Amino acid sequence: MSALEVRHLSRSFGGIQAVADLSFAVEPAEILGIIGPNGSGKSTVFNLLTGVHKPGSGTITLFGKDITGWPSYRIARAGMGRTFQIPALFTNMTVRENLLTAAVEGDWKSARQRAGQVLASLDLAHVADDLAETLSGGQRRLLEFGRVTMRDPRVILLDEVTAGVNPRLRDIILGAVRDLREQGKTFMVIEHDMELVRTVCERIVVMDAGAVIEQGPPEAVFSQPAHPRTVAFLSKML
What we know:
alpha/beta; 36% helix; globular
């Protein structure tokens, strides 16, 4: 059984076809990279998967359960979490309090202990009692990633989680992704950092104009791209 499966997914906004007959699957404990030019539909796919938008057609299944059209809170409770391109934190709350808000519906008795573990693993312990509004851009991304992991989702979607992050914080995030993958978590990663994709992802889906134009292992896609639009995109990125 796939962790996440999309079949013939489509969505239009007015006259614009943002996602067109999209199909792919993500296997348990896989790290799948989603790449493509700006406007290719990558973030729209994440929004469809997490209930921000409803599909015009097609189906989405999470570990065999049809979650098509579910509201975001139900999808989150079913075991899917995500980050956003712009972190949406409670800026008037401390870093620790931000983590605890993500545990309200879970095991509250162990929440403080788990928050402490997340703070340590993401190197945020020294700012645990600082307001989120005082954090750097990179630390905000770390905190948003930490809030997602506090819910203990089975599938985690990362939308440019390392964008604008310095190399040390980038390594912390990537280390956490690898550790969680070893624990059986499944990841989908939207990234413009091709070296990161090459290093972390086991398989890549290339999107353009709302559709999958190519997919395969990173080395195959990077060294011998089969689609002309993949070649054009990679020539600008590598």
